[in-house]
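Q: What residues go here?
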């Protein structure tokens, strides 16, 4: 399996190189040259299989012979044994034809664990094979940092530095990073915003001296391996509800469009997905793009669903490329223009192709709170505010022809303030969440300065300037 860049100006590479690089050298995102296919019989045969086995089946189609299958299977079994539920991603019914897929039974109680746990093991494997080490620098607005620290803590060939904006993430989110005592983990409370952290990350990644010296890498959802790992639960949940014999719809709370694009990948592989509803909060760049054909950045507003407070959805470039006839020149032009002018006019034919799968729905804060309360009253389920955005989008659409699966992206106990404000109840954290509440924290305050942070990374990696 070979990977090409959405901007068409980088040479194709294999899975391991695409995985280690993250971004392609021409600034584009890697995507497979052709979509691997499952036959109807192969999809039907996934029914009832353990989650780790389905993961191995899906991942192996993208990895090919670059990692031996028995080794891949061992990694999948180990990764999903860290989850607190034997189904890994269980389904709960909330309406006659509506279900939620609970993606939050992993170590940091958010869906980011599903991809990060297998990513850490893939990294270990390929770094050992190449005799290399790496330093992951991570900028987090909440859940990615905790999932990355949980997945990479204690690993011999990886150091991880998690930067978070001081005072701007929830205490529970912070504690999933700062209570890790492992030697390979450092947490930095940056005196700035998430945007400052992200700008520092970009600057560090662009510093080729630093990159070479410490093996710098990133773990955001531009990495295609993360998307593939997320395609797996589209298969397990759809098959549980009768696919491939009947089509299934999905409803996905979206920010960076990683999860939404993973559904597109599952569909390209042959899974009969009729519709994917892209539910956003008031940061609605994706919903507006799908409804009007204009992809335009707005001001970021703080909401109850902070993991979706994003106004530039990195993975949208992959969908654009797909729906622009895989024309890398056109895609590169559009997204370079977007970086300059913050607007892309999607050509009508591309928009028509997007609409064959995707529907965009934006949900207000009031609707989100009302949906949290209504879901509790009607079903007894306490959901997180991100999940509530998607359930609200579903309610807005009314009854549909096919069963719908809503992706529940975080445990409600990760957002106790929003849940309490909407329902009057304080959600109980599972044992892991309770444990981090009691452990001592370790982090260092640092200026929002790329020089200071780059110096910190060098020292941590034992590479003097
Ligand atoms: C990251 C995150 C999202 C958004 O996922 P994308 O793949 O960026 O669209 C939604 N909900 C929660 C809880 C998250 O952590």
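A:
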């Amino acid at each position: 399996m070979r990977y090409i860049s959405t901007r068409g100006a980088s040479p194709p590479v294999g899975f391991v190189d695409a995985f280690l690089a993250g971004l392609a050298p021409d600034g584009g995102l890697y995507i497979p040259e052709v979509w691997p296919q499952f036959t109807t019989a192969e999809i039907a045969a996934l029914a009832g299989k353990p989650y780790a086995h389905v993961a191995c089946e899906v991942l192996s189609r993208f990895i090919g012979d670059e990692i031996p299958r028995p080794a891949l299977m061992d990694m999948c079994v180990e990764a999903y044994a860290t989850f607190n539920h034997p189904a890994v991603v269980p389904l709960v019914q909330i309406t006659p034809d509506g279900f939620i897929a609970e993606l939050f039974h992993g170590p940091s109680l958010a869906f980011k664990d599903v991809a990060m746990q297998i990513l850490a093991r893939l990294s270990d494997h390929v770094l050992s094979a190449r005799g290399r080490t790496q330093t992951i620098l991570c900028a987090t607005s909440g859940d990615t940092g905790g999932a990355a620290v949980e997945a990479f803590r204690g690993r011999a060939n990886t150091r991880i530095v998690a930067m978070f904006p001081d005072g701007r993430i929830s205490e529970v989110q912070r504690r999933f990073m700062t209570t890790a005592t492992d030697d390979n983990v450092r947490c930095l409370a940056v005196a700035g915003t998430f945007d400052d952290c992200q700008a520092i990350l970009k600057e560090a990644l662009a510093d080729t001296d630093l990159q070479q010296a410490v093996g710098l890498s990133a773990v955001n959802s531009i990495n295609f391996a993360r998307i593939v790992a997320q395609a797996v639960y589209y298969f397990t949940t759809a098959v549980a509800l009768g696919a491939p014999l009947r089509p299934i719809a999905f409803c996905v709370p979206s920010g960076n469009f990683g999860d939404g694009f993973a559904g597109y990948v599952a569909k390209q592989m042959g899974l009969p997905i009729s519709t994917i509803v892209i539910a956003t909060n008031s940061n609605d760049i994706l919903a507006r793009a799908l409804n009007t054909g204009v992809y335009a950045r707005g001001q970021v507003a703080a909401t109850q669903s902070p993991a979706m407070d994003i106004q530039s959805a990195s993975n949208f470039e992959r969908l654009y490329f797909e729906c622009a006839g895989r024309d890398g020149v056109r895609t590169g032009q559009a997204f370079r223009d977007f970086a300059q002018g913050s607007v892309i006019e999607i050509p009508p034919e591309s928009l028509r192709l997007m609409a064959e799968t995707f529907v965009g729905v934006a949900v207000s804060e009031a609707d989100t709170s009302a949906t949290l309360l209504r879901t509790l009253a009607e079903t007894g389920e306490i959901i997180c505010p991100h999940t509530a955005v998607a359930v609200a989008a579903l309610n807005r659409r009314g009854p549909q022809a096919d069963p719908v699966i809503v992706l529940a992206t975080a445990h409600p106990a990760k957002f106790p303030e929003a849940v309490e404000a909407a329902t009057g109840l304080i959600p109980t954290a599972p044992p892991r969440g309770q444990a981090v509440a009691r452990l001592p924290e370790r982090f260092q305050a640092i200026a929002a300065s790329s020089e200071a942070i780059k110096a910190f990374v060098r020292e941590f990696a034992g590479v003097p300037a």
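A: Context that may help when evaluating the design: The chain has a mean pLDDT of 94. Residues 110, 112, 143, 221, 253-260, 307-308, 386, 409-410 surround pyridoxal-5'-phosphate (CB under 6 Å).
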